Amino acid sequence: MSLAAGGRLGPYEILSPLGAGGMGEVYRARDTKLGRDVALKLLPESFTHDPERLARFRREAQVLAALNHPHIGAIYGLDEAHGSQFLVLELVDGESLDRRIARGRIPVDEALGIAKQIAEALEAAHEKGIIHRDLKPANVALTKDGHVKVLDFGLAKATDAAGATSIDLANSPTITSPAMLTGAGMILGTAAYMSPEQAKGRPVDKRADLWAFGAVLYEMVTGQRAFRGDGVSDTIAHVLMEQPDWNALPVTTPVPIRRLLRRCLEKDLTRRLDSAAAARLDVEEARTAAGENGAVTRQRPRWRRVMPWAVMGTLALSLLLVLSPWRLWRRAAPLAPVRVNAVLGVDASLASIDRGSAAILSPNGQIFAFVAQRRSGAPSLYVRRLDQLEATPLAGTDGAHSPFFSPDGEWIAFFADAKLKKIALSGGAPVTVCDTPDAKGGAWTADGWIVFAPFVSGGLLRVSSTGGTPAPLTTLGDGELNEAWPQVLPGGTAVLYTGTSSRTNSDDATLVVQPLPAGPRKIILRGGSNGRYLSSGHIVYVHGGTLFAVPFDLERLEVSGPPVIMLDGVASNTNGGSAQFGASETGTVVYQIGSSNGATAAAGAPIEWMDRAGRRMPLRTTPANWGNPHFSPDGTRLAVEINDGKQQDVWVYEWAHDRSSRLTLDAAQNQKPVWTPDGRRIVFWSNRDNVQNLYWQRADGTGDVQRLTHGQYPQSAASWHPSGKILAFQETRPQSGADLMLLTLDGDEATGWSPGTPTVFLSSPAIEREPMFSPDGQWLAYQANDTGRFEVYVRPFPGPGGKWLISTAGGTTPTWSRTHRELVYRTPDNQIMASAYTVSGDTFRAEKPQLWAEGRIGPGTGQRSFDLHPDGQRVAVAPDLAPAGGQQDRVVFIFNFFDELRRIAPTSKR
């Protein structure tokens, strides 16, 4: 009902109407008993005629009345007069926020002051378990003395029913009509500010308020709603499917506020900011920075961002002197590059240099991300702002390698546990994008795709950054064995990658440009790898540990000048072509000092014995780049693969005589040796026919090599059944990962062997590797990433039956002891664990894993970095080559690198 001025509701004298909405009519009134002005909100008749809803509302109102906060409009009571139910509310004298925004966007500094008070109100209410559910500018009042009052707190839950509708999307009804029902739920909230879960009619929690907070803050600083549409349905569609126009944010918007807005308006509920206190702290940080700089609009000077790094080196004073005039003279003349040696800011070592760059920079050059490993853990991702002294670990990134930023710098993608993953810098757990057995680099495009190079032979793949099944983007060119280290060039018109014709010497690789979506590929440079286009108009690449730069015409996709040397001593790896180098779009470079390893056999390591007590002694003292060791059944010989800098071959080492003999003599790559149970032959994979299939040869080197499989996908042998007639191996498919396979042989040594057709033993959405037969042949151990990381499992052979989890905190390369009832494996932090087991019928019982020996082993190369001797008392391992007396904890930053590039290698680009 409508009330006229001068009328009364009990002790309240009506003074004037204040407004109306889905929640009812609101009047200004005078409390004649207490002598104060209040606001009366009359509840809709449909509400008051429902006794159950009214009783529920009374209970909720009692809870809400307990809120006592300076930025929350108070509820004084719930009353009834003349058959009308009404709320008695605190009267806030001032202007509603929606009317303030209607006059134009609010200056950032003023908007932050308002946002801070709104966040404080949400924080206080959430601590009492109360959710607003309908936060919007119309429910925020600005008092005449500059204070904020959040109104109608929690009333959306209290009313919880269908009400009137409205065509005003900014003030559409809190409770929508029955036509808006979805499933068993009901859409609550104002269309323009409701969270996606509200729009879907799902239960909500305090994160719905954080979404609305982000929408209100966005509207304050931009003057426009974050989600706009021509109708309620259209607006809801935008909430569910679209992103706000981030370009509408004023350039003066501080970085913490940009980050806060993205975290609040995250559609994925698990990734959304879930704390009003955190929102308040972000706002306070931005306001504090504004006070330090004199205005929100002023970015921190370059010298202040660089200084924390320079303090850790020897250039602090000179850096300050050089960089102080940068802002004044930057446009007047090119600046000399400034080099700063800096520590990582965490007690850890940079990860191995054979899996992509361990250190990278965000596109804007403000964030340094790197992969490092503590002595007591697996490699993981860390991030550090250039204006801070310490790095922060990103939880859930164990085993990460080859990281790369999203174009907006808000996400980092990386590879781990046979998956491509991404993690938001704003917080939250990593998200799996897709499965991939392993990879050699990736790139995130501006239009939301990720291009990556699978580790197995083949062309580049492409997958949506939101997840999906990878699809081929390129195919191998003539003579190419692999395509690696991709980068999509600006504009998305082409992809730059490294094409390799050798698996061991990337210095012979080529830099190739493939136009997109189609067109003939173009070799732009021979004799280099890991090419990177820089916004200076150059392509940089690595050859022999030296970083070269060459001018590049982006329109013609051609080199436009001779290469020049930019940096000597860049850590790199000629086996895979990776280089420890990263650059931002703003001209800052980070790299790790080192050499080109793998170029000679001397760039490797010896092989060591390690016994159960952790004692070590030499096994093979000659250093080599070796991997995948495997003992002969009698324990007198060790088969390994060795990379001599040109190719990979299988060797057999007899330590009693310190004698090594090369088993494979052709020009192909030959890897992963596995002895037959009788010790007469060694099976291995080879690419001699351009496909990674299985072959075997007599261990003494006599006779011809025999091909065992003719598959189209890469294969790798793992173990033989004790009968000697069944070989377990893995087959890796670029789009589905690795499956466990079996190959049965017919015949015998006298009549000759005839391989049958491979069959699948285990195929699932997970990646399965390293199938290992137990000594009695009744069980098969393997590693799989069902849980998101590799663990060791055991299954009965030949089955059927379930599986038993053996490892408890990650595990790879399972190995059965022949003398003890135990299964040993390697942990992510390079320790060897052992799990004792018992067998009862078809039941396998494994005990809690225990440390097999004190000490860590080196990471090695290949899929296996250790093997257990048949006596069960010692293992062959790679030594732990962590730097003596220290860590690989330093990198070099070069500021103003692009000016130097343009000086020594001029381009037409300005």
Report on this model:
With 910 residues, the protein is an alpha+beta fold. It has four domains: 1-91, Phosphorylase Kinase, domain 1; 95-299, Transferase(Phosphotransferase), domain 1, CATH 1.10.510.10; 334-592 and 888-904, Neuraminidase, CATH 2.120.10.30; 601-877, TolB, C-terminal domain (Neuraminidase), CATH 2.120.10. Helices cover 15% and strands 36% of the residues. Strand 26 (510-515) and strand 27 form a beta hairpin. The longest helix is centred in the N-terminal third of the chain and has 20 residues, at 108-127. Residues 158-189, 292-332, 598-603 and 882-886 have low confidence and may be disordered.
Beta-strand proportion:
35-45%
What's the CATH H-level homologous superfamily of the largest domain?
TolB, C-terminal domain
Domain module count: 4
Q: Stretches where pLDDT falls below 50 for ≥5 residues?
A: 158-189, 292-332, 598-603, 882-886
Rounded radius of gyration (Å): 33 Å
- Overall morphology: elongated
Characterize the biggest β-sheet: 7 strands, antiparallel
Mean pLDDT across all residues, rounded?
Answer: 81
> What is the annotated CATH architecture of the largest domain?
6 Propeller
Number of helices: 14
